[in-house]
Each structure stands twice: as structure tokens, then as C-alpha cells.
Amino acid sequence: MIRDVLAPTDADVTMLLAEVWASYVDAEPLVPGPTAASDDCWSATTTVSGAWRGTVSVQLSAEAAQRAAALMVGVAAATTVEVADAVGELANMVGGNVKSLMPDPSSLSLPVVRAGTITPPSDAIEVAASSVSWRGLPVSAHVHLLTGPEAEGATR
Amino acid sequence: MKILIADDSRVMRQIVQRTLRQAGHGHHEIVEAENGRDLCEKALTTSPDLILSDWNMPEMNGIDALQRLREGGSTIPFGFVTSEGSAEMRQIAETAGALFLIAKPFTPETFAEALAVAGVV
User: Fold this and answer.
1) pTM summary value
2) Which of A98, B30, B67, B72 counts the most CB atoms within 10 A of its CB?
3) Nearest CB to B84; choose among A20, A74, A96
4) Average per-residue pLDDT for chain A
């Protein structure tokens, strides 16, 4: 049952998102806020496979993604490629740290990035989330537990 | 010194370079690679003094690249810069011949300490 499976808490995800943000974007505090609208956002997700199975995703409003990427790259305006790269790297860092909190051994996928939302797999159940506002812009991180059988051919 | 930075994220390669500068290591020549295969090729063609590599990359990941280099006789000092900093990953890295593993998110101080371990001045 879900309650018997180890999972990060909302507080874990909030802390990880804040640490990553402060290290690579800027020191402006993240405060509780709404999730970005699905028709105006960038999303990225990583998948953890092995002793613990889940997805870790981030979702930013389009403006938050553009401004965060520009700060990460150190330019006035980030290109679309740089925005996608930056959002993917944010998911990679939050995902890698969630993976480190969960049981070993496991592996982390490369991030999948999309302009828009990424629909979780049908067997995914959200177990933790953090929705914050950065300079008035929506940023969120979500952890889903994968409850279905591991796909054939899945490798560590 | 010449430092080879390998990461499939160009944004992260730039962040690593910025952090090196903040850690007092902005005077080194930088070579960039975008995956493990590229890392191995450039390790042979550019002869870096230190390799800083991500773990999870397309085509060839960092740990496979390190193992390939060591099997080929390379003794270039190698450190990981990765989002996965668990005890298991650190042990795998050490066994394969890495000098250190810097976990993301990192600070200039973390970089300075790791490079000191590697003997980089």
C-alpha cells in the first residue's frame, strides 16, 4: 500500500527546491504560491528506477523559466534552447537529490523537457509537492510514486 | 592548468566555470565535453590536467567514461560533479578511480576543497 512505501515529504521537496534555487538562480526567497498555468509553462521530469521508483518533475511559468535560465546562464535573455536546458537541469538536480533520499540502488534518467505540462504515467501517484512563488512567478516541484510493474528492458 | 568539464547541459558547464572562478580557479584553460564519448576523445586530444564530469549523460555516462580512460592507462585526475551524491554513488566513483564527487547543488567552497584534494592550485 502507498502508506507503506518510503517517499519524500512536501517539506523535503520544498527544502531541495529552495537549495537548488538559491545555489543556481538567485537568493530571492521562495514563498508558498500557486502552480503555473498549464498553457503557459515549461516542465521537466526525471525518473528514478530501481529500489525506489518514481518521477521528479519541476514546472515553471514561461516567464519564470526565461528569467531563471537567464540568471543561470548569465545573460540578459536566454534562448529557447537555454531555457529548455536550464529547466531540465533544475529537474535533474531536484531529482538527483530526491534519489539520494530514497533507498539504493537506483538510477536516475536524463531529464525530459517540454514547453507545457508533462502528464505523469497512469500508474503514478503524487506523494509530495512544493508550489512556490519566485518574484511573483509560479515554480513547483512534484514527486510521483510509480506503482505499476517496472517496464521490460528497464536497466539500472 | 587545463580543466576538462563534461556535462550534457551547456548551462551547467557554464555554472561550473563560474563556480571555478568564484573558488579562485578562474585562471585555468577550460575544455568542454558534452557526453562521456566526447570526454574520452578530448581527454586524449587535449591532455587535460583535471577532468570534472557529470555522471548521467547521453551516449556514454561519466562512470563508463572514467572506466574507459583508466582501462586505457590514463591517470588524469578525475572528479564527478553530479546531482546524485549518495554514499553508494561515492563508493562507486571511488572504486572506479575518481578523486572526489561534488554533489549538486554545490558552492565555491566545495569546489575549492575538492580541487585542493586533487592538488589543483
Assistant:
1) 0.92
2) A98
3) A96
4) 92
